Every structure is written in structure tokens, then in C-alpha cells.
């Protein structure tokens, strides 16, 4: 990959769908190339600038995670294809496979869902149905927590002012609070805070800032926010087809013995 990037005339660093966990300058030093930060506006509405002359010179778009992890990147590839621009994708690890670091087996995961920041007037709960579908099959659910980068207030958006709100990253305690709020409305027991096991993860990638915490939703919501470290945060809702090896592996990250007790008594996982 490094050689491919060094051949490019322009190198863009996408800074919208995720966040880079190291300084941009370190990447520039490693590749020996200046990086052009591609913010939300450029990626979503000004992608023609990225594709400009791409049929004549090599251009790279660096993505945090895997390029096919977001429809935004798929859209850029489709635009390039429509213009007859040849493309090459170099795949990378993403949260979709790195989540296995928590000890749950990847082939036991069902549909992934996204959880957005609730507002006073907007609290979408369609994610609940997807988690319920996974739960019916006993599958785990990866919950991707919302990030707000380069967002405009309604007032600034209406007035056409390019003034942006500070970045916001959803935390584990807020996510658990929102899940509990929806469960209180639905009352289907899919996300019962006391009997639903979950695993919180942050800065997944194996570095010193990675954090993994396992417990019931109630326990995770009660932890001091500092326990989870820096964003980005993700949450796994544990499915009932929980294997004893999964229980044992994740127990190393458990808040306390309640993890194993709920696995035994509620999830009916035999002790080995």
C-alpha cells in the first residue's frame, strides 16, 4: 500500500466517517507525501475535486477502516466508474472484524446497527427491530455509535452560514441510556438492562488506548465514563447463542462475576 500511495500525485485523507488515531503529520512522514484532508463537504458534495484528472494521474483516498465500510466511499467509486476512471481498492481492517477482540466469534454476529444522538424531537428506534431480529436467532449485534463531525446548527444551516458545531462522539453511558429509553417504550425485553449482556469497546485496534469492558447493560451504564477511554466507542449486544468459550474469554474484561452468572442463569450457557 505504501508504494501505491507514493506513486500518487494527490493523496486525500478522509476525515468524516471515522477519526484517525494518530497525527496526520506522522502519516505524511511515513509516506513522504502531503495529505489533503477531505472533510464532509468534500467527500459528500465536492467529490468531483477528488476525481479531477484521475483518469490521467494516480489519486488516492485514504480511509480509516475498510473502504467499503461506508456507502459514502461506494458512491465515489460509482462516480469514478461512470466517468471511466479505473479504480483499485486496497482493503484494510475495520471495526467489523476488529470487534472480535472482545472474544465473541465473528460468525455469531448478525446485522450491525447504528445508534444516533437523540434530540428532544427525534428519537429514531428502528435499530431496536434489527437487534430483536438478531436476538431471535441468538446472534450478537454490533452497535456503531454516532459521531458528529462538521455539523451545522439548524439556524446556521437555514441561514447558509458555514459555521460548524464542535465534534461530538457518542459515549458508552449515553448509548446505554438511549437503549434503555427505547426499551422502556417498547417493553419487549430485548434490551432489559439487568439481564442483557453487552461488551463496550473503544479505540479498537490493539494499541495502548484500547479498552474493553463486559457486563450487563445496567453495569456498563453505571461505570465512570473514564473507564471507557477516548472515542470512538462501540457496543456489542450479546446474543443468546453464547458459547462457553466466548463467556470465558470475555470474562477477562468483565466488571465482576455478574457476567458469568447472567450467562449461566439467563443465557443458559453451561459452565465448563
TrEMBL record:
GO terms for molecular function: diphthine methyl ester synthase activity. Residues 3-220 form the Tetrapyrrole methylase domain. It comes from the Eukaryota. Gene3D superfamilies: Cobalt-precorrin-4 Transmethylase, Domain 1, Methyltransferase, Cobalt-precorrin-4 Transmethylase, Domain 2. Signal peptide: none annotated. Its EC number is 2.1.1.314. It holds the Pfam family TP_methylase. Keywords: Methylation, Methyltransferase, S-adenosyl-L-methionine, Transferase. S-adenosyl-L-methionine binds at residues 66, 69, 94-95, 145, 204, 233. It catalyses: 2-[(3S)-amino-3-carboxypropyl]-L-histidyl-[translation elongation factor 2] + 4 S-adenosyl-L-methionine = diphthine methyl ester-[translation elongation factor 2] + 4 S-adenosyl-L-homocysteine + 3 H(+). Pathway: Protein modification; peptidyl-diphthamide biosynthesis. It is an enzyme of class 2 (transferase). One of its GO terms (biological process) is protein histidyl modification to diphthamide. InterPro entries: 4pyrrol_Mease, 4pyrrol_Methylase_sf, 4pyrrole_Mease_sub1, 4pyrrole_Mease_sub2, Dphthn_synthase. In the N-terminal section; belongs to the precorrin methyltransferase family. S-adenosyl-L-methionine-dependent methyltransferase that catalyzes four methylations of the modified target histidine residue in translation elongation factor 2 (EF-2), to form an intermediate called diphthine methyl ester. The four successive methylation reactions represent the second step of diphthamide biosynthesis. This is diphthine methyl ester synthase. It comes from Serendipita indica (strain DSM 11827) (Root endophyte fungus).
Amino acid at each position: 500500500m505504501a508504494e501505491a500511495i507514493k506513486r500518487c500525485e494527490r493523496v486525500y485523507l478522509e476525515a468524516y466517517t471515522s477519526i484517525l488515531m494518530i497525527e496526520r503529520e506522522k502519516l505524511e512522514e511515513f509516506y513522504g507525501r502531503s495529505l489533503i484532508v477531505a472533510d464532509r463537504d468534500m467527500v459528500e458534495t465536492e467529490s468531483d475535486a477528488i476525481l479531477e484528472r484521475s483518469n490521467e494521474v494516480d489519486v488516492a483516498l485514504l480511509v480509516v477502516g475498510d473502504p467499503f465500510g461506508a456507502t459514502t466511499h461506494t458512491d465515489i467509486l460509482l462516480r469514478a466508474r461512470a466517468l471511466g476512471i479505473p479504480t483499485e481498492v486496497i482493503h484494510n481492517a475495520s471495526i467489523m472484524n476488529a470487534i472480535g477482540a472482545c472474544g465473541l466469534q465473528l460468525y455469531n454476529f448478525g446485522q450491525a446497527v447504528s445508534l444516533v444522538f437523540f434530540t428532544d424531537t427525534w428519537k429514531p428506534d428502528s435499530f431496536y427491530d434489527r437487534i430483536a431480529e438478531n436476538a431471535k436467532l441468538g446472534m450478537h449485534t454490533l452497535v456503531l455509535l454516532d459521531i458528529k463531525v462538521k455539523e451545522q446548527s439548524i439556524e446556521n444551516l437555514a441561514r447558509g452560514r458555514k459555521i460548524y458545531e464542535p465534534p461530538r462522539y457518542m459515549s458508552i453511558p449515553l448509548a446505554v441510556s438511549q437503549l434503555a429509553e427505547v426499551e422502556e417504550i417498547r417493553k419487549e425485553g430485548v434490551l432489559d438492562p439487568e439481564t442483557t449482556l453487552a461488551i463496550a469497546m473503544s479505540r479498537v485496534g490493539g494499541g495502548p488506548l484500547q479498552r474493553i469492558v463486559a457486563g450487563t447493560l445496567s453495569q456498563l451504564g453505571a461505570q465512570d465514563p473514564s473507564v471507557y477511554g477516548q472515542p470512538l466507542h462501540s457496543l456489542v449486544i450479546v446474543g443468546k447463542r453464547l458459547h462457553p468459550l466466548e463467556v470465558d474469554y470475555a470474562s477477562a474484561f468483565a466488571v465482576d462475576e455478574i457476567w458469568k452468572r447472567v450467562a449461566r442463569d439467563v443465557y443458559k450457557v453451561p459452565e465448563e
